[in-house]
Design brief:
Layout lengths: L17 H15 L5 E4 L15 E4 L6 H4 L6 E4 L5 H15 L1
Parallel strand pairs: 2-3
Antiparallel strand pairs: 1-2
């Protein structure tokens, strides 16, 4: 949709600061180096902190101990967790909330 080099697109926004971009890229890198995670699209290699560009990234099955579950993302990262039922989804979210209280 955004061509060969989406980072050059004027339609994709940038992150507010280099520090925030570096933080988000570190979350993506952590997931990339974690067994069982799969980056479906995007990834750290497509990001550029200097230009405050973080590629839209979808991460499949990241473990709940990763930073991307523990922090507010405010960026184009979507972690996806499979659950067996609506009750499992509610339980997962409630467990995450309890860990951060």
């Amino acid at each position: 949709m955004f061509g060969e080099k989406p980072q050059d697109s004027v339609d994709l926004a940038r992150i507010v600061s280099k520090t925030s971009a570096e933080r988000l890229i570190s979350y993506i890198s952590e997931a990339e180096s974690t067994t069982g995670c799969k980056v479906l699209t995007g990834g750290s290699k497509l990001c550029n902190a200097e230009e405050k560009y973080v590629a839209p990234t979808i991460i499949i099955e990241p473990p709940s101990d990763l930073k991307l579950w523990k922090e507010e993302l405010f960026g184009p990262i979507l972690p996806i967790k499979s659950v067996m039922s609506q009750e499992d989804a509610i339980s997962f979210i409630n467990d995450m909330v309890r860990r951060h209280d």
